[in-house]
Amino acid sequence: MRPTTLLLLCATFALPTAASANELLKVYEQALQNDATWQAAQHARDAAVEAKPQARAALLPQLGANATQSIQESTIHTEGSPSREVPRDEPWSASLNLSQSVFDWASIQQLRQSDDQVALAETSLRAAAQNLRLRVAEAYFNVLAAADTLRSSQDENQAFKRQLELAQARFEVGLSAITEVQEAQARHDLTNASLIQAQQTLDTARSALAEITGAAYQPTARLQDELPLAAPQPADIEAWVKTAQDNNLDVLGARLAADFARKGIQVARAGHYPTLDLSASTSVSESSSSNFDPATGTLASTTDRRTDADRVALTLNLPLFSGLATQSRVRQAVSTREQRDAEYDGARRLVERQTRDAYLGVNSGAARVGALKQAVVSATTALEAAQSGLEVGTRTFIDVLNAQQLLSAAQRDYYRSRYDYLLARLRLRQAGGTLGDADIGMVDGLLVGP
Asked: Could you give the CA distance from residue 250 to residue 351 in angstroms, rounded to a whole number?
């Protein structure tokens, strides 16, 4: 094999492989199809948008028709004469009715109010979509973090097993006391317990991910070794707070809810106002009647009757007294408006705090990743130094065990800090109301094969 070919092959195997079929994006796609919370949010939006056509319907013409067919049988009883049956009558009638609201302040305000209700439903759905993206990333990273912890615990367990075997060998040849064996045994037993806990944590994380995706999924990817630890852009916390106040979907939803409640006061006050309706109808009916002659006690004649009628009316309804129900509804609407205003203020304050926390979390998270990465390097060096010192007699066996335990803890903290940093970036985007599919794609691009 030529040297150039060998170098190309080595470079190929040294490069990180891509995550299998965009693993995080695949999980996200499954969640879009199967997550119950997301599906419920979609149905809630679909139900809420029907408020506008229902409110508009009250201001549109109302057309109705009715028909009646009846059967009437009668018997005439007179004193001193036999009973006489009147011929059976089958009267019928039909009508067509048209009505149009000319002025109804309550219906007008409800139509205006429905705009806020539809906008609130759309905002809630967008917020649910952002929440789904974050929940998918959190559940997925929890699985990866639990898998990292399990691997670290397995490595730690194997390391303490080797240390236990070394302690036993040193004890058998008289180079150490039995206390070193007991200490190594104790550390090894603790790692066995940690392994059990780590496996349970991984199983729990997988179940939480399956709850979102609707199916069991076994992630195999991992984060690439070097993460881009960039500061948020713009690097101004106040700019992020302003963006969140303007674009955060929870704040926007709270403001729309307050607007909806404010218009609800006008709807309630409309109970004091008159309404004006225009109506028109046309009807036709047919019936027959029998004429009875009391002198002879006989039916004199039977008359068939057909009636055609057209009617147009303008009706004014003026409420005078409703048992104070309208006043009560106004007070209720005012209290609801004040509640929504308070919730809006609370949402703005909460989002400001969350934005500041997320911004600081990104900056401190980046610094923490760098510090823990260096801690792993230092802990590795310390372990090597302790092992070398043990061989020359300058360090004790307990020093080696402590150094090994310190390295394992540093590795676990380092792995977890990388996921925490990425989640902090996503939370900052969510606080600013800009968390989208592209952000999930960006994180997916940092994954490599197992």
From this structure: 8
Q: How many other CB atoms are found less than 10 A from the CB of residue 179?
A: 12
DSSP state of 446: T
Secondary structure class of 63 (helix, strand, coil): strand
Helix (H, G, I), strand (E, B) or coil at 305: strand
Q: Are 368 and 418 in contact (CB under 8 A)?
A: no
177: nearest Cα among 397, 388, 404, 399: 397
Q: What are the backbone angles phi and psi of residue 175, rounded to the nearest 5°?
A: -90, -10
CB 18, CB 446: distance < 8 Å: no
Cis peptide before 82 (omega within 30 of 0): no
**Tokens at 309, concatenated:** 């009628």
H or E element, residue 216: none
353-369 pLDDT, tens digit each:
999 999 999 999 999 99
Contacts 24+ apart (CB under 8 A), 194-202: 194/153, 194/156, 194/157, 195/150, 195/153, 195/154, 195/157, 198/146, 198/149, 198/150, 198/153, 199/150, 201/146, 201/149, 201/150, 202/143, 202/146, 202/147, 202/149, 202/150
Report which DSSP code applies to 271.
G
Q: What is the pLDDT of residue 80?
A: 61
163 touches 400 (CB < 8 A):
yes
Query: How far apart, in Å, are the Cα atoms of 191 and each of 2, 156, 169, 178?
Result: 48, 7, 21, 20
Is 71:34 a contact under the CB 8 Å cutoff? no
Residue 102, CA atoms < 13 Å, CB-side half-sphere: 11
Contacts of 188 (CB under 8 A, 6+ apart): 157, 160, 161, 163, 164
CA distance 167 to 161: 10
C-alpha span between 143 and 207 (Å, rounded): 9
Q: What are the CB-based long-range contacts (under 8 Å, 24+) for 263-266?
A: 263/109, 263/112, 263/113, 263/116, 264/113, 264/333, 264/336, 264/337, 265/330, 265/333, 265/334, 265/337, 266/105, 266/109
- What tens digit of pLDDT does each residue of 91-129 get? 889 999 999 999 999 999 999 999 999 999 999 999 999
In sequence order, what are the residues at sequence separation of 6 or more whose Cβ sits closer than 8 angstroms to the Cβ of residue 138?
A: 423
Q: What single-letter DSSP state applies at residue 18? A: B
CA atoms within 13 A on the CB side of 66: 4
SS3 245: helix
Of 101-115, 170-184, 310-324, 412-426, give the lowest mean pLDDT range: 170-184
Rounded Cα distance, 207 and 225, in Å: 27
